[in-house]
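Before going further, learn to read the protein records used in this course. Taken together, the tokens spell out the fold as the letters spell out the chain. A record is reproduced here so that you can trace the correspondence yourselves:

***
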Amino acid sequence: MSRLGRVPIHLGVALGATCAAYAGSLVAVTALETGRQDAARVEVAPLADAAARTRDANDRLEAALAAVADRYARAAGDYDGVGTAADRSGASIAALADELRPLRRGLRTVRIPTLPARSAPGPVSLAAPVAAPPAAHATTGGSGKP
């Protein structure tokens, strides 16, 4: 005779009922948790959309700033080239004035003005400062805390 034959039937029924109650409670908890997560997703969806739009706007702003920095660097290079050309032109005019000085002494009617000293332009930075992208602060809500 098997050992199950000696176990009273009401203990088997109690064990089965307990297992069924436990399984039912697991189903209920899962359903409640799924509903809560769906509600949280719906609640957070506008914030996620706003974060995505902000990220896209920041990416466009970063690209625009990079383009401005590039144009600034080119303008600074052009400015430096203009200063060099002005220095060469000033030296050529000074040399011409030196060559014409004897003629000036001979012809009192011709006046050659002297050139004022050229003031050097201020320093030009060829690089614009670039700011680091902002830090992102986000939570997933996966721990069950809002």
Observations:
- Residues 34 and 40 are 10 Å apart (CA to CA).
- The longest helix spans residues 9-106.
- The chain has a mean pLDDT of 79.
